[in-house]
Write a structure and sequence with these properties.
Blueprint lengths: L1 E4 L10 E2 L2 E4 L9 E2 L6 E4 L10 E2 L2 E4 L9 E2 L16 E2 L6 E3 L10 E4 L7 E6 L6 E6 L51 H27 L2 H19 L1
Antiparallel strand pairs: 1-3, 2-4, 5-7, 6-8, 9-10, 11-12, 12-13
Helix pairs in contact: 1-2
């Protein structure tokens, strides 16, 4: 009685065979073994790990199966160089990646060593308190003169003819009797003039005389004052 058997292909590690027959009552068989194929080797180059990425040694793989000699290597991590300073970064000595940027200068207060004038610029400097780096700059000259005040237009007072119709009281203080010890600059009236004023006083009365005197002397008050003074003086002379 013939028994049929299916074929099995060999692989890298295991044997195989074609389809074959056997007999169930005897040891008859057409079986023929096929040797294992072995690996179909593919070689891979090594890659060194770096600060951030894994690496590996050279390894093999098989093109027909999952055979491999691959073994990964962990990243090395950064190796820090010198500490950062005012002008220099701290970098990794392996990959030159900047780990800590430069801090920049820390300057102290400005020191003015030359004061500016109206003829020359000044000068000042400052020093970094960490590395003593010095920076300096010029100071602008002072202005040659201070800002002048704006001009103000002056308006001269208008002049015109004297107002002869002004209030007589406005001129009260213009002419005053001389104080004791002061020179008498009052115009002198002669005796005939005194008699004429006396007649005029009887004709027109005191108000009229004041008005007439004001016309001649420019002020009624001043006129009557002068008149009274002169009349008093002549009266003393007549005695």
């Amino acid at each position: 009685d013939i028994v049929e058997h299916e074929a099995q292909a060999p692989d890298c590690l295991n044997i195989g065979w074609d389809a074959y027959e056997t007999c169930s009552r005897c040891d008859y068989t057409t079986y023929a073994e096929k040797a294992a194929l072995g690996h179909d080797i593919v070689n891979h180059e090594a890659k060194a790990p770096d600060c951030l990425n894994i690496g590996w040694d050279a390894y093999e793989t098989c093109s027909r199966c999952d055979y491999t000699t691959y073994a990964s290597k962990e990243p090395l991590g950064h190796k820090a160089g010198d500490a950062a300073n005012c002008v220099g970064d701290q970098v990794c000595v392996s990959c030159q990646l900047v780990l800590t940027p430069a801090t920049g200068h820390t300057y102290g207060e400005w020191i003015v060593d030359i004061l500016p004038t109206t003829q020359a610029e000044g000068h000042r400097y400052t020093v970094c308190i960490v590395c003593e780096h010095r920076t300096e700059e010029a100071l602008p000259m002072l202005p040659s003169s201070e800002t002048e005040p704006p001009e103000v237009d002056t308006i001269e007072p208008e002049t015109g003819p004297a107002d002869t119709d002004s209030d007589p009281t406005e001129d009260e203080n213009e002419t005053k009797p001389p104080e004791p010890g002061e020179s008498d600059t009052t115009p002198v009236i002669s005796l005939p003039e005194v008699k004429w004023y006396a007649k005029l006083l009887g004709a027109v009365g005191l108000p009229g005389l004041v008005i007439i005197t004001g016309v001649f002397l420019g002020s009624a008050t001043a006129g009557i004052t002068i008149l009274i003074m002169q009349l008093t003086r002549k009266r003393r002379l007549l005695k």
